[in-house]
Every structure is written in structure tokens, then in C-alpha cells.
Amino acid sequence: RQVFTAVLYKTAVVNSVIIFNMDLYGHDVSPPCRPVAMLLNVLKLKYGLKEIDVMEGQQMTPEFIKMNPQHTIPTLDDNGFYIHESRAIMQYLANQYGQDTKLYPTDPKARAKVDQMLYFDMGTLYGSFKDYLFPTMIEGVPLNIEKKLKLVEAVDFLETYIGDQKFVCGDELTIADIALLGSMAFIKGCGYDLYGHFKVAAWLERCIPLIPDYETATQKGVSQFAELVATLVAEPVF
């Protein structure tokens, strides 16, 4: 099924240019874009990557706003079906193309646990990272120690959630792991020391090899983001 799906999304070659039915609008340095790219790779889906530089206002064109009134990235165009919000995109992709995988369980209780961790990522882990770092990057205000401690608390929570499991929702990789991996990759890339978070560190080591072309899908963007932070934030982040 996955092979068929991959062929399906490489639809034509025109003047030596591959035409895809699925396009991902995003940017390497955007943390929410990385989990979507990783999931596309895990599902072996072929897609076109449309780079959107939000600093240049490329998300404000009428064409983009028609796809996404919030003018945010990532945004997915699946043959004319537009969806944004990274975790919603991941849920859609897993439902549509990952039925033969264990990435998004169909059992209501198992799926609820995955959803719980997706929302934990969005509102608590990535949310606290964004709240801590982005005001300094964008507005130049000093880093806030209380917000830093909220981020540390969020990583503590992740350590507890993993516990003795291989992955955050049990012994199988799910889209919750991929979403959280994206957030933790950027947090760690900004200098966060995982000493004392041994379960998180071990979980990262288990997850990364399961992501095809992790270097391009995530690590490249993490490195670029870290360089950007170094130019915009005068004091050590961690």
C-alpha cells in the first residue's frame, strides 16, 4: 500500500520536472513544520516542498490566504484539499495514508492517549518553548527565568510520560512521538542539557533512527534555527 501511495503522488514528469499532487508549504527553521515532514517520510509519501519565508511576508499572498486564512505554516495541499495546524495535518495524514500502520491507533482509548500527547506537545512542551524563547527573538526582551522553569517542568513531564515505555504511548511509534520529537529536537538544538532526563534522551535515540532522512527532514532546520537564535539572543538560552 505504501509503495502504491508513493507512486500515486509522483504523478507526471513535464520537461524533466516532477509534478506532485501533494504540496507542503513550510520552512526548514519552523519547528511545527518538521513533524509533518518527518511523518511524510515515515509514510513514504512523495510531495512537493514549497518554501514560505514568513519574514518576507510570503504567507500573505491572496493565493496562500485562500488556502489558509490564518496565513501560517505548515499548510498542506493534498490535491486541492487544504489543511493547516501541524498536529491536525499529522492526524489527517495518518488517517488517510497510514491505516495499515500503528502510527494512529483506531482503538478509542489508545487513540485518546495519542491525542493527549499531541495536545501536551502543542500546549505544554512546544508551547512553553515558544513562550520562553520567541519574545526574545522577535521583540528583543530579556529571557524570562520563570518561563524557562516552565519549560524545564514540561520536559520533566515528558520524562514521566515516557516512564518505562519505549515510546510515549506504549511500545509502538505513533504520531505523538513524531510531534514531540520535533519539539525536543529544537529544544535540545538550542543547548538544553538532558542530564537528569535520561528517559527523554534514550527515547530520542530510539525515535531518530525510525525517521527516514531525519537529517533533511529535521536536523538541517534545527541547525539553522540554532544559528538564528545565536544571532538574535545575546545571552545563553540554557
Offer a few descriptive terms.
238 residues; alpha+beta; Glutathione S-transferase Yfyf (Class Pi), Chain A, domain 2; 4-stranded mixed beta sheet; two-stranded antiparallel ribbon; 9 helices; 6 strands; 11% strand; globular
Instruction: Identify the CATH class of the largest domain.
Output: Mainly Alpha
Number of individual domains: 2
Which blocks of ≥5 consecutive residues have pLDDT under 50? 1-18
Read across the widest sheet, the strand sequence of neighbours is 4-3-5-6
In the CATH hierarchy, the third-tier topology of the largest domain is known as Glutathione S-transferase Yfyf (Class Pi), Chain A, domain 2
* Largest sheet: number of strands, sense, barrel closure: 4 strands, mixed
CATH architecture of the largest domain: Up-down Bundle
Task: Give the number of DSSP strands.
Answer: 6
How far apart lie the N and C ends? 44 Å
The average pLDDT score comes to: 91
What general outline do the C-alpha atoms trace?
globular
From N to C, what is the helix and strand string?
HEEEHEHEEHHHHHH
Q: What structural category characterises the helix and strand content?
A: alpha+beta
* Percent of residues in beta strands: 5-15%
Number of contiguous helices: 9
- Radius of gyration, whole Å: 18 Å
> Helical content, roughly?
40-55%
Query: Could you state the oligomeric state of the chains shown?
Result: single chain
